[in-house]
Write a sequence for this structure.
C-alpha cells in the first residue's frame, strides 16, 4: 500500500508481502478497505484516535490552545503517514466509490476526525470558553485542513516530516484559537 497506494495494491501483492496466501488474508478481512483501515489503526504511529477519544473529557479544562496543538500534532503525524497511501483512492471514481461505501459499512472515514474536533469545540462554546458565534465545524476544518495541506505539501515535495512538527502544530492551533476566543 505504501509503494503503490490503496487503489493499485492488489490483495495478492499484499498477501505475498505479508507472507500469507490471499485466502488467508480474506479470512481476517472482508475486503481491501477493511485491511486498509486495520493498517491505519494498527501500524500508523499516531495517537490521533486516542487524543480524539479523550476530547469530551477535556471540555472545560486545560488550555484550549494546548488541546488543539496536541490534536494538530497528532493529525500532522497521522496525515503525513497516510496521505501517500490514501491519495490513490482518488485516482479512479469507481475505486473512490467502493472505498467510500466500505468505510461507511465499517462506520469510519476521514469525517470522524473532523466531527470529533467540531463536537469538542461546540462543547467548549456551550461551556462559554469560546465565542458562541464561532463556527466549530469551520474551525475544525481550518485546523485539520491545514494539517492535511501540510501532509500534502510534504509528500509532494518529498522533504519528509516538518523539522519542528510540535512548533507547526502549536502555530496552527494558535491561529485557530484566535478566531474562537470569547469576546
Amino acid at each position: 500500500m505504501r509503494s503503490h497506494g490503496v487503489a493499485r495494491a492488489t490483495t495478492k501483492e499484499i498477501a505475498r508481502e505479508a507472507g500469507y496466501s490471499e485466502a488467508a488474508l480474506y479470512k481476517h478481512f472482508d475486503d481491501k478497505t477493511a485491511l486498509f483501515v486495520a493498517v491505519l489503526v494498527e501500524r500508523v504511529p499516531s495517537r490521533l484516535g486516542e487524543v480524539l477519544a479523550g476530547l469530551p473529557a477535556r471540555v472545560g479544562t486545560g488550555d484550549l490552545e494546548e488541546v488543539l496543538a496536541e490534536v494538530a500534532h497528532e493529525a500532522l503525524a497521522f496525515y503525513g503517514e497516510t496521505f501517500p497511501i490514501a491519495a490513490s483512492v482518488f485516482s479512479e471514481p469507481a475505486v473512490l466509490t467502493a472505498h467510500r461505501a466500505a468505510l461507511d459499512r465499517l462506520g469510519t472515514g476521514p469525517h470522524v476526525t473532523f466531527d470529533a474536533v467540531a463536537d469538542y469545540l461546540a462543547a467548549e462554546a456551550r461551556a462559554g470558553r469560546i465565542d458562541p458565534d464561532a463556527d466549530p465545524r469551520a474551525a475544525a476544518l481550518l485546523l485539520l485542513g491545514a494539517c492535511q495541506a501540510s501532509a500534502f505539501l510534504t509528500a509532494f515535495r518529498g522533504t519528509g516530516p516538518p523539522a519542528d512538527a510540535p512548533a507547526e502544530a502549536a502555530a496552527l492551533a494558535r491561529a485557530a484559537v484566535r478566531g474562537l476566543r470569547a469576546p
The chain has a mean pLDDT of 83. The two ends are 47 Å apart (CA to CA). The chain is about 70% helix and 0% strand.
